[in-house]
Every structure is written in C-alpha cells, then in structure tokens.
Amino acid sequence: MDRWTLREFEAEARARLEPAHYDYFAGGAGDEVTVRANETAFGRLGLLPRVLRGAAKLQTDVTLLGSRAAMPVLVAPTAFHRLADPEGERATARAAAAAETIMIVSMAATVAVEDVAAAAPGAELWFQLYVQPDLAFTEKLVRRAEAAGCKALVVTVDSPVLGMRERDLRNGFNDLPEHLCCENLRDGARGDRVRPVVMAPELSWEHIDLLREMTALPIALKGVTHPADARLAVDHGASAIMVSNHGGRQLDTVPATIDLLPEIVEAVGGAVPVLLDGGVRRGTDVLKALALGAAAVAVGRPVIWGLAADGERGVTRVLGLLRAEVEHALMLCGCASIHELEPGLVRRPC
Ligand SMILES: Cc1cc2nc3c(=O)[nH]c(=O)nc-3n(C[C@H](O)[C@H](O)[C@H](O)COP(=O)(O)O)c2cc1C
Ligand SMILES: O=C(O)C(=O)c1ccccc1
C-alpha cells in the first residue's frame, strides 16, 4: 500500500504497535501542551511566496559540522527503535543513508553504535549523548562513537531528570522487554553489564567544558530554548545549537520550537548553525524553520512511524516524502535554493 503523507504513517504505526509502545513514542510530559504546540505553531505561520524568479534548478543540500546532507531534514535521536521493527536502528540508518541525510544515533539505541555504522556503510552518523556523571564511562562512550565513525556529538541538555510521562506511568511502561536493551550502555570487559541511562541534575557548563577537552568532534547542544543559554553554549565552545523541547517530553508548556527559533537565531548572531526539531511534519514546516534562520531541522516521531509501518522501506518513504515536499514548496516559493529562504517569506499569523 502506498502512503502519501506522514499522517498515514502515523495511523499505520498506531494500528501496528502495541498500545503501550505507541503511547511511549507518541506521548509527552504532563498535559502534552508542548507536544501539541510544536505541530500547531507551524500551521499558524503563513508562507508568502515570491513569483517570477526563474527558479528552475533546485538546491537542497547542506553541510553541517562537516557532514553533508542532501536535504535539510535530519533524523533526530530517538530511543528504542527495535520496539518498532526487529532491525531497529540498523533499518533507520540504511534509510538515512539512502536519503543521503544525517542520522543522530541515540545513546539509548537498541543496536550498538558500531553495529548501526556497520549496517549502513554510507551513512553520516552523529552520536547523541547524555553526559553520564561517571566521566570515565562517558569517555568510553565518546571513544566508541568516534571509533564507529560518528562525525559529531549531540549532547542533550534538557533532561536533568526524565519528564513526567503520564501515559507511560498509566501503562506501567518503564523498561524494555527482556530481549532488548540499550546496547550502547553495555559495560565491562565482556560487555555484559548494561547500565541504565543516567539523567543527572548535577550537570553544569563545566561538564561541557570537560567534554570539549575530551574530544575533537564538534559538539551540538540539544535542548536549548532560552536565548541566554544559546549565548552560553557558544561561549562554551558548542559548534551548533539544537532548539528543541524534546518533542514535548520533558518540561510541559515550553513554547513551540518554531516560536522560539527567531530569538535564538538573533542571540547566536550567526556564530554557529542553529538546528530545530519538534513538530516538523510537512515540507512547508521545513521551509518556515529555514526561513526563520534554522540551518536544518530534524524529525523524531515521523521516523518511528515509518519504521513501525514498514521498517527500512517505511523510513525511506517518510524521508522521501519530506524531501519531495521540501522541493515542491521551494519551487512554489520561488526559491532555487534553501539558502534563499529568508524571514520575509513567513507571515504570522496565517
Ligand atoms: C520516542 C522518542 C524517544 C526519544 N529519545 C530521545 C533520546 O534518546 N535522546 C534525545 O536526545 N532525544 C530523544 N527524543 C527527542 C527527539 O530527539 C526530538 O527532540 C523530538 O522527537 C522532536 O520532536 P518530533 O518527534 O515532534 O519530531 C525522543 C523522542 C521520542 C518521540
Ligand atoms: O524517551 C525519551 O525521550 C528519551 O530521551 C529517553 C531517555 C533515556 C532512555 C530512553 C529514552
């Protein structure tokens, strides 16, 4: 069956997944105000196309932190892909490679980062890290990511503790089934002990400084929403900033990321690229984010929907739909290149 929109994938994922697993993927913190806001805020913005600009040949590729992507849509780091498909993160990585885009591998992946890299030789991988208070263990993870060929670290900073996800509490979903685990968190010489993901309220900017010393890889900070933190991130050597509210899964009532973007872009003043995730479901959403100053966006749940609906093929189709929509909307906006997108194309409210 052919599917023509990301929404169809969402419906199919819902029908296929175990309800508690669907809820884990779909849900957010508290009343899920932020989950809804991320999507609806895009709908409130209008696009004002330009005409007669002779834009026939399209350019959609971007280079970010030394990695090339054929389109400005990256795969956001999401945990537990093997809950959606037996191949899990391997399938996602192959689809990202086929789409020639960057996959940010979650530290909480259910396939080890080495195995993800081996499964998709052409893939551009970045590694998402929750800095563990055990810095020796953090360093081991960083070395593994480097050795596996990851080109950047994406450090998630919006999770001093896990968000209060009431769907999961109600469903009693608090651990993976017996046959799955967070493969990047195996410990010990034989790699047999699996540590839990530690979220640590004691983390501070000093830890970012330590990490900066630990590796030559570029570091992106994910989960920045306050303009003052965006400036601090640059001061502490971040190579990119990812405006993210964790898809509404951490602090509820954080505003939609697309509404936060302009202030962050202004605060950063072009010093480093600004990325955005949260609620991107259409090519027009991508264009709005780029017009307002994002260098690229990332998608979280849509990738899971593709994976749950049809494994690698499903993710390939989700990424392909987004690419086709980006190209089509660009053309209709009178832009030959994503680099021509500018704030004047966005009108608020719709
Ligand atoms: C099921 C799920 C698992 C996630 N796991 C992680 C994770 O392990 N690390 C992380 O930094 N962000 C994680 N996120 C947040 C995503 O990286 C991203 O910020 C969010 O999904 C973007 O919103 P979207 O789902 O509306 O595209 C997760 C999100 C979801 C939905
Ligand atoms: O579910 C999440 O959003 C997430 O970030 C996470 C964190 C630790 C383990 C698994 C998932």
Automatic annotation (TrEMBL):
Domain FMN hydroxy acid dehydrogenase: start-end pairs: 1-350
Phylogenetic lineage: Bacteria, Bacillati, Actinomycetota, Actinomycetes, Streptosporangiales
Gene Ontology molecular function terms on file: oxidoreductase activity
InterPro entries registered for this protein in UniProt: Aldolase_TIM (IPR013785), Alpha-hydoxy_acid_DH_FMN (IPR012133), FMN-dep_DH (IPR000262), FMN_HAD (IPR037396), FMN_hydac_DH_AS (IPR008259)
TM segment ranges: none
Keywords associated with the record: Flavoprotein, FMN, Oxidoreductase
Pfam families cross-referenced by the UniProt entry: FMN_dh (PF01070)
UniProt source species: Nonomuraea marmarensis
Enzyme class: oxidoreductase
Stated name of the protein: Alpha-hydroxy acid oxidase
SUPFAM superfamilies in UniProt: FMN-linked oxidoreductases
Cofactor(s) in the UniProt record: FMN
Xref: Gene3D superfamilies: Aldolase class I
Family: Belongs to the FMN-dependent alpha-hydroxy acid dehydrogenase family.
Entry annotated with the keyword Flavoprotein: yes
EC number: 1.-.-.-
